[in-house]
Amino acid sequence: MKILNFISICLCIIIGTNTTNIVNAQTINDGKIHFSGSIFDKSTNKPIAFANIGIKGTTSGAASDFDGKFILQFTEKDYSFNLQISAVGYKSFSGNLEEVYDKYDKKTIYLEPVNYNINQVEIKADSKVLQKLIKDAIDGISKNYEQGEFNYKLYVSENAVKNNNKIKTEYIILTDHKKGYKRSNGIDNFKNIKYKVLESKRSFEPNSLYEEINPMDDILSMDVIMDDKGILNKDYVRQYKLKRLNKKTDKIAEISYECKHPHISNSGDAYAIKYWGIIYIDNKTKAVIRNISNYQTSANSKHGRIFKLPKDPKEIIEYSFDTKYKINKNNKYILDKIEFSKTFNKDRSNQSQTNTFVKIIEFSNKNTITIDTREYHENRKANEKFWNKFELIR
Known about the structure:
The protein is about 20% helix and about 35% strand. By secondary structure, it is an alpha+beta fold.
């Protein structure tokens, strides 16, 4: 009997190590399950970059890289939730985590392209309707979103893989939005939005000032309601290819967009090569409740997407962010969370990737705290007493 058991174990090991296409889900020392796989186009068998992979009801999420690969982290209690995968121009994939494991034993998950099957006249007519819907959403910002000075308290988690080394930084950051969601240009936004770091914790010791810089300037630019560069700009809305992804009668309009000729003013990135995404607009209130943006750029500045570098390095960088909004007690929309993924592909054999998660943990428009500067970097000692008690409410 012992010999038979030994043979069975050996067979399991052999099968497990030689089947390269089976979904890889394993628990490592940090107590989380790491699920890795690839997202491909069913019709062309080509990888899909920047597909959004998430578990509904949780903060667990990831995005596929340029080769369609992704790594999703979650805990055992997430097994009862649904896994959802979405990408611009494709039908969404959804299924219970455990059922996905049972039904799909391959690493590669295929998405079906959406066939809109409409002629050019209909496309042109619908494009004008969608342009008007986006313009109406811009006009409705002062009505739908919190106005006047307020503070956000944010939790920010930045996880990076560089040279096969995993590093993590966590922040608690307080912002001062001096004029609320009042639309303005980039210079006025710089004047009207300030922030400071309240707490921070690093899994590594910074070796330079560069490694102490936080991602807040990028994060603020991903709050698309506040930012005037990108899809929510009346001056540039005609420069986008727009498509409706769902029925006109649906409560939420899902609109895919692709910028024809991206530059800093219509994309918000000084080095944009490609810029596309999906925006979700409430058909009744005209409020933007979600935006997914994808970029391919030729360079990256640690100080923010709008900044130019002294020299223009020739490298390909892909990143995406998913911004969601929620209604507060005042029946106004405010920021809920942002998921941000960035991949550096300068050397394909040694890619580096950063995944950032942002969650609003407090909102206040009474007895607001005034902040007069932007605290770009800091290297304070971690307050272990605070972090031991801190628990993120999902």
